[in-house]
Amino acid sequence: MENDHLLACRCMEITEVEIRNAVRQGATTVDAVKRATQACFGLCQSKTCFNIIARIISEETGKPISEILPIKIRIPVRPLNIESF
User: Fold this and answer.
1) The pLDDT of residue 27
2) Which of 19, 25, 48, 59 would give a disulfide with 44, using CB separation of 3.0 to 4.6 Å?
């Protein structure tokens, strides 16, 4: 039974139902779920919600969790000088 209020991504307040609906509509990777729902865009950058999203994708598609890749990491738009930190 799906719970409409169970959060999958706490940072962006995306529910499990929203993730499942995105997967059912074709978002079968974490990157695709991210684009479809805005999950993983929060402060944790998927460190908290990746396992939950991967489990949901696995349950909905039958794909083993070990085959579900994390989101792609993007480099900063501008290079930063280490001295600026």
Assistant:
1) 96
2) 48
